[in-house]
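Re: the multi-chain job from yesterday

Posting the exact lines I submitted so nobody has to dig through the queue logs.
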Amino acid sequence: MRIAIDVMGGDHAPAEILNGAFAAARANADRQIILVGQEEVIKNRLIEMKELGDEVPANISAVFAEDVMDMDESVTSLLKKKKTSIWIATQLVKTGEADAIVSAGSTGAQMACAMLLLGRCKGVERPCIAIHVPGGGRLLLDTGANVECTPEMLEQFAHLGSVYMQVQEGIEKPKVALLSNGTEDHKGTPTVQAAHALLRASELNFVGNLEGRDLLRGDYNVMVSDGFSGNIALKSTEGAAMMIMDELKQGISASFSRKLGAMLIKPVLRGLKKSLDYKEHGGGPLLGCNGVSIVCHGSSDARAIENAIGLAERCVAGNFVAKVTEEMTKVAEAKAAREAAAAAEAAAAEEK
Amino acid sequence: MRIAIDVMGGDHAPAEILNGAFAAARANADRQIILVGQEEVIKNRLIEMKELGDEVPANISAVFAEDVMDMDESVTSLLKKKKTSIWIATQLVKTGEADAIVSAGSTGAQMACAMLLLGRCKGVERPCIAIHVPGGGRLLLDTGANVECTPEMLEQFAHLGSVYMQVQEGIEKPKVALLSNGTEDHKGTPTVQAAHALLRASELNFVGNLEGRDLLRGDYNVMVSDGFSGNIALKSTEGAAMMIMDELKQGISASFSRKLGAMLIKPVLRGLKKSLDYKEHGGGPLLGCNGVSIVCHGSSDARAIENAIGLAERCVAGNFVAKVTEEMTKVAEAKAAREAAAAAEAAAAEEK
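And the result, structure tokens for all chains:
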């Protein structure tokens, strides 16, 4: 398996990205890690390693990219400078030189590269970012690629998420929910209401609307949302978890007896930390494009990058992209058949 | 102070609502609590109390209402049956027989009653629900009254929240933030982007966009959002907090040593629980209508209702409604003056 890593993208790039890439290479000699970034940055790291006596793993290679996409840069500037690390890394997937790409850089740029270079699956208007909710068995999408969505896009996300959970997690009939401001069927914006009707009429295992409070523990496998609200749900959950863990940590270290108490409940705290850890999967796949592109959190550290590389491998091994294409073709055909039947019925009714 | 309580609204109505109302009456003999609900329900409770030897506080009175609004009922049916507890309780505020109303029933019905009976403040298109974020000094609005908002409505919410925090919390120049999917100025839906520009041009102390993760600890006093995303942010935070506290509780009781450990860190856990407790304020005021109407969580228990009664009293005592009207009039005048100046400038430029 060959994974291209965008060395230049992320708040802690290039150091943490490189650390993660090296850790992943060392952990498994069968994977090929292709570092994509500025020549100077990569060479400096190799020199540094030599000086420290660190061996460079044999399964690491590099492809140089002159330019870097800044986090704030508009996606249109991507088209002007095509030698950015994200562009070149995605191109490696297009040409078949890599099986997947992992980046913690600008999500907009990564999405644009995926759409322009890899293309979209049949029946998909726009790819979306799917994030594994901590605890397992739950996926949230879209979490930020598309701030505005049509009801049809939300239906496509539902199909994408459903196939993903079938293929990657082995869940037979994933329960699909729609994120709304209440569980009642009529709740939500007009777009959410229309998406609700589409999902109800689909072949999906649609379980109805769920709320923000259901994200971590609700009875669902795929939570569908536009990228704006999905991002807010994800980050609000993260924010609350971070705040609580910080307050616990601070409070606990305030006295000897509390430190002792904390020691006694250490397994509980450790389990809790694990069950809230968004870094467990390292990132989320861009679903709906013809290739595996893993979007990582901007704040990714080495461990997140290493885990994202593992996720990329699982997506490639699961042959997920082919299965999505197959499923979306079926969905498109079923829809066309339904529409044709409805049209025929309408025509017959008119004749009478 | 006379507070009308909608006895029939809420998941735990009427029992918990009545418990909260009685507790509030007992806690302060100066307040007048007016129970509004079905005659049978209220009388049965009084009989029950007599049987148990519980004294009925002298500062409790009742107004009977034949009908009840169901949680799922459409707001249009409100107009058909005008003898619902929420309608009659709001009317008591309109006629001056009560100073404020508290309800844990259908938010849509409460909002409709407020708009129809109390009316809106000058310059306010739609009232919104403001919720105190746990920890103090932070307000989130709208949290569910308006699922779709225009940029102008979001600007009005910002003014409403800013005056509220000045009057009720004594914060001189409240920091106003806009909830978005990233802190960069260009982030968000077209509506959020347009609202960002309006807030930037306003006299408010606008500090820019904030994310879901900033809700509990961000550097702001007023977080502005449409009711859909605001609801999702609030409930996602609540959901994460509930999940963590539950896991802690479960894990801690699993063995003797862990129970001992938990005892040693009890102050930390208690502090944490308090700093995450949305029931501390019991509910949120409907801002922008000509009267004090406190919206409580559907799941409110007696303590939440008692706290909401306290919040209602503080809002009345702060004379908040008059101050909002004053402020919104000023905002409308300043806007009109700016528009007139711009028009004059444009006309002068054309003449040249």
